[in-house]
Write a structure and sequence with these properties.
Layout: H1 2-21, E1 32-40, E2 46-54, E3 59-64, E4 69-73, H2 83-87, E5 89-95, E6 98-106, E7 111-119, E8 124-130, E9 138-145, E10 151-159, E11 165-172
Parallel strand pairs: 1-10
Antiparallel strand pairs: 1-7, 2-6, 2-8, 3-4, 3-5, 8-9, 10-11
Length: 173
C-alpha cells in the first residue's frame, strides 16, 4: 500500500506548489495622463504650442505670423532649422510617427488646460511661446525629456508681465 500513497502525496504537493507560484501578473503600465496648462498674464496676445513626441522627430513644420507653413524634413532638432525661420515662427511642430500637438492663441488674461492621454516613458516635449503681432514673434522654445526611466505628468506655462515666461515640467518614475 505504500506505493499508492506516494503518487497521491506527490500529486497533492504539486497542486499546492502550483497554487503558491501562481500565474505571473503583467507588468504595470508606465503610461500616464499628462496635464498641460498655459496662462497669459502678460502684455500681449501669445500663441502657445506644445508637442509630445514619442521617438525621434524626422522634421519640423514651422508656421509664421502670416499663417504660412514650411516643412523642414531631416531637421531632427530645433538647431537644424534656419535661424530666420525660427525667429519669425509662431509655432514649431515636430514631424514623426507619434506626435501629439496642441496650439492655443491666448489673449491677455486668458488661460487654457488640457490632458495628453497615455503618455509613455522617454517622450520629448517641445514647447513654443510666440507673440504673433511682433515682427520677430518667437519668444521661447523649450525642448526636453524626462529620460528613459520617467514619464511626463504635467507641463505648466505662465506668461508674465514684462515678457517673462515661466515653464514647469513634472516627471514621475
Amino acid at each position: 500500500m505504500p506505493s499508492v500513497r506516494l503518487p497521491i502525496v506527490l500529486c497533492v504537493v504539486l497542486v499546492l506548489a502550483a497554487g503558491c507560484v501562481g500565474v505571473p501578473e503583467p507588468p504595470a503600465s508606465t503610461e500616464r495622463d499628462a496635464s498641460f496648462s498655459a496662462t497669459n498674464d502678460g502684455n500681449e496676445t501669445a500663441v502657445v504650442t506644445v508637442s509630445v513626441v514619442s521617438g525621434q522627430p524626422v522634421g519640423y513644420r514651422v508656421t509664421d505670423a502670416g499663417n504660412v507653413t514650411r516643412t523642414y524634413r531631416n531637421a531632427t532638432t530645433v538647431d537644424d532649422l534656419p535661424p530666420r525661420a525660427v525667429a519669425t515662427a509662431v509655432s514649431l511642430v515636430p514631424i514623426g510617427e507619434d506626435v501629439r500637438t496642441e496650439r492655443y492663441t491666448l489673449r491677455v488674461g486668458e488661460g487654457v488646460g488640457t490632458t495628453f492621454d497615455s503618455v509613455g516613458r522617454n517622450v520629448t516635449l517641445v514647447t513654443v511661446v510666440a507673440y504673433p503681432e511682433n515682427p520677430e514673434p518667437m519668444r521661447t522654445i523649450g525642448v526636453g525629456s524626462c529620460g528613459p526611466d520617467a514619464t511626463l505628468t504635467a507641463v505648466e506655462i505662465l506668461i508674465q508681465q514684462g515678457g517673462l515666461i515661466h515653464e514647469s515640467v513634472s516627471c514621475e518614475g
